[in-house]
Specification:
Helix content: over 70%
Radius of gyration: 14 Å
Number of helices: 3
Number of strands: 0
Structural class: mainly alpha
Largest sheet: none
Distance between the termini: 27 Å
Order of helices and strands: HHH
Low-confidence stretches: none
Length: 65
């Protein structure tokens, strides 16, 4: 998910996406600990995408106050 796409979404949509992304990330980590993944770099990509969404939510929170 690119930064431009994140900025276009509403805050409620971002929160929903964040919850789903975190759930998927946790499941991916569990699967990776059990057996290796085809693409272990996906863990890093997902973690960074979660950070981008959290950063955007925090910026919106600070701008509204």
């Amino acid at each position: 998910m690119k930064q431009a796409e994140i900025k276009e979404l509403s805050t409620a949509d971002l929160r929903e996406r964040l919850a789903q992304m975190e759930k998927d990330y946790r499941q991916l980590c569990i699967n990776h600990s059990i057996s290796t993944l085809d693409n272990p770099a996906k863990i890093t990509k997902d973690r960074r995408a979660i950070a981008r969404v959290k950063t955007e939510l925090r910026q919106r929170e600070l701008n509204n106050n």
